[in-house]
Write a structure and sequence with these properties.
By secondary structure, this protein is of the alpha/beta class. Helices cover 44% and strands 16% of the residues. It has a single domain, classed as Glycerol-3-phosphate (1)-acyltransferase, CATH 3.40.1130.
Length: 320
Amino acid sequence: MSDQPHATGIATENPTEALPRRFLAPRYWGVWIGMGLLRSLLLLPQRWRVAIGSGLGDLYRRFAKRARYAAGRNIELAFPELNAWMREDLVHRHFRAFGAAMMSVSLIWWASARRLRSLVRFRNREHYDRALAENKKIILLAPHFLGLEVAGVFLAHERRIISMYKEPRNDLVDWLMRRSRLRFGGALFERDSHLKGLIRLIRSGYPFYYLPDQNPGEASHVFAPFFNVPTATLTALSRIARLTDAVVIPCFTRLLPKGDGYEIIFHPPLANFPSGDDLVDAAAMNAAIESGAREMPEQYMWTYRRFKQRPPGESPLYHG
């Protein structure tokens, strides 16, 4: 692994790589101090970390006006059957879960395989194991739930997989993040990179831990229903599945109550996917994500303005 991701957008493990000397310069000392504080959280029991994180989530909710508005508006659009009190309660629980999930960073970056195993359990794992046993190419559909990074790192410790990431602006944070997340092997795919290297790795047998981008922008997309709202949805998943002949297995990560760890949940593979129709495929992906969000609504990433991009002629759904 070099200082920068490969030209293909794929970063792979090189555990013998020495720390580049430029990262010892004073301009990076603040990052080193912050990382040291994050790593020190591993000294605390899981329940303590979750309790502290939940309290920080409460504090964040009080001061993060824009995030609080986005969460409230998204929940209003997604769950019109809830009254105002119920929506506010869900927003409150979401921010507490958000804070608790942020305490997972130290685990994701530095925890040993043994410690991760002590905190992770599975539900419906047979869907994943069956596809592996049948030597199928696999895409794990991992939507934006708060604990999604835990599953990505834990599954990589079991076998080499491809995980997605977005390159941070700070090059030291990027170097540390890639080195930490690749410590068990596998590969990282930078989400804005060309698909060629990714397709090659999936075809070679690497499962792909796919995070569907919530902001299609100018990328190929359709407006597919998500909580009955026409939502800009990327068409990349069906294209990658078609090019690799892969099965798509929804994979959700749930933070368990009271700091009891994490549950990785698998759903059955998407049926007749890809179908050859981008809109049908996007709707199937959104339906799978919605199913997980209805099961644990406080743990979906509601602070992002998921419904911001509207079909031509439709009015904005957010204000301010």
